[in-house]
Design brief:
Elements: E1 2-3, E2 9-10, H1 16-32, H2 39-44, H3 50-62, E3 70-72, E4 83-85, E5 91-93, E6 96-100, E7 103-113, H4 118-141, E8 152-160, H5 187-200, E9 206-212, H6 229-232, H7 258-269
Parallel strand pairs: 7-8, 8-9
Antiparallel strand pairs: 1-2, 3-6, 4-5, 6-7
Helix pairs in contact: 1-3, 4-5
C-alpha cells in the first residue's frame, strides 16, 4: 500500500481479487448454462463485477466515508437504493452512489466487455455511457438533486485482453472519413480513446480502463471470493500489494489508471 500525492493510501493492484472473481463467476455461470439455458444469457446475467464494487466500498470506508453514505449492490455492502432521477427518463440505476445529508456526492458506472463479440457490443457500451452522463448532467441542471453541489461522475471499464480485442479493425467510410485516431485502431484502442474522451469532454470526472487476460483455467470457486468487510480490507503483507497480483490485469494508459481514478473519487467523497 502506498500514498498518492493527495495523501490517500491506495493498495497496489487493488482490483486483483475483483478481477479473479470476475473470471471465476463467468466460468461458473458458463458451466451452468449447459444445464438448459443458453450460455450467453447466463454469462450476461451474472454479478461479475460485485467485487470491484466491494473494493471501492472498502477503500472509501477505510478513508473515513461513513458506510451509510455509500450505496451499492455488492454482497459486501448490499444496500440497493441506486436510482437517480433523469431528465430524458424518470430514473436510472447506477452501480455505486455516495449520498450525504441529502447531497449527491458521486455516481459511478462499472462495466466490462469480453469476447468473442467485441464489435457487436462496442457501440452499445459507448452509447450507454454517453447517454447516462448526458441524462444525469441535464437533470442536475434542472435541479433534480436539489441543493447538491456538482457531483463527481466516474466510469470504470474492464476489457478482455485477447488477440481479437487487440487486432486492428477497419472502419467502413462510404461517405466521410473517420477521425484519424480510429484508423486501424483495435477495440482495445477504441475503448481507451473512448474513456479518455469521456473525461476530455467532461461527461465524466474520471475514467479507469483496465485489461485482463482470460485465465487458462477458470476453476476457482466463486464462494471463496466472497468476503466480509474486515477480510476484504487490505492490510500490510496482504495479496493486494503482492507482485503476483500485478499480472492479473493491466493498465494500458497512465492517465486512465486505477490510482488516479480512485484518488479522484476519494477527493470528492472523503469528509473534510
Amino acid at each position: 500500500m502506498s500514498s498518492t500525492p493527495a495523501g490517500f493510501n491506495i493498495p497496489s493492484a487493488i482490483f486483483a481479487d475483483a478481477v479473479r472473481y470476475f473470471w471465476a463467476q463467468r466460468d461458473k455461470q458458463a458451466a451452468s448454462a449447459h444445464g438448459g439455458e443458453g450460455q450467453g444469457k447466463n454469462v450476461r446475467g451474472g454479478r461479475h463485477l460485485d467485487e470491484v464494487q466491494a473494493a471501492l466500498v472498502t477503500l472509501m470506508i477505510d478513508h473515513g466515508v461513513p458506510p451509510g453514505d455509500i450505496f451499492s449492490n455488492c454482497e459486501l455492502h448490499k444496500t440497493g437504493k441506486l436510482e437517480l432521477p433523469g431528465f430524458f427518463r424518470p430514473t436510472k440505476q447506477w452501480d455505486l452512489l455516495v449520498v450525504r445529508d441529502g447531497h449527491l456526492l458521486a455516481a459511478m458506472e462499472i462495466k466490462a466487455q469480453v469476447g468473442p463479440s467485441f464489435g457487436n457490443n462496442f457501440n452499445n457500451r459507448t452509447e450507454e455511457a454517453i447517454g447516462s452522463a448526458t441524462d444525469l448532467w441535464t437533470a442536475y441542471r434542472e435541479n433534480a438533486f436539489l441543493h447538491s453541489p456538482q457531483p463527481w461522475l466516474g466510469y470504470l471499464f474492464l476489457l478482455e485482453d485477447d488477440e481479437k480485442s487487440k487486432r486492428p479493425v477497419r472502419n467502413p467510410q462510404p461517405h466521410f472519413d473517420v477521425f484519424s485516431e480510429f484508423y486501424d485502431a483495435s477495440y482495445a484502442k477504441r475503448y481507451e480513446l473512448f474513456c479518455r474522451k469521456l473525461v476530455l469532454e467532461r461527461k465524466y470526472n474520471a475514467a479507469c480502463f483496465l485489461m485482463s487476460q482470460r485465465p487458462q483455467s477458470e476453476t476457482a470457486s466463486s464462494n471463496t471470493m466472497h468476503s466480509t468487510l474486515r477480510d476484504n480490507r487490505p492490510t500490510a503483507g496482504s495479496p493486494h500489494g503482492g507482485k503476483e497480483n500485478s499480472t492479473v490485469y493491466s493498465e494500458p494508459s497512465d492517465d486512465l489508471n486505477a490510482r488516479q481514478f480512485l484518488s479522484s473519487v476519494l477527493r470528492a467523497v472523503v469528509p473534510v
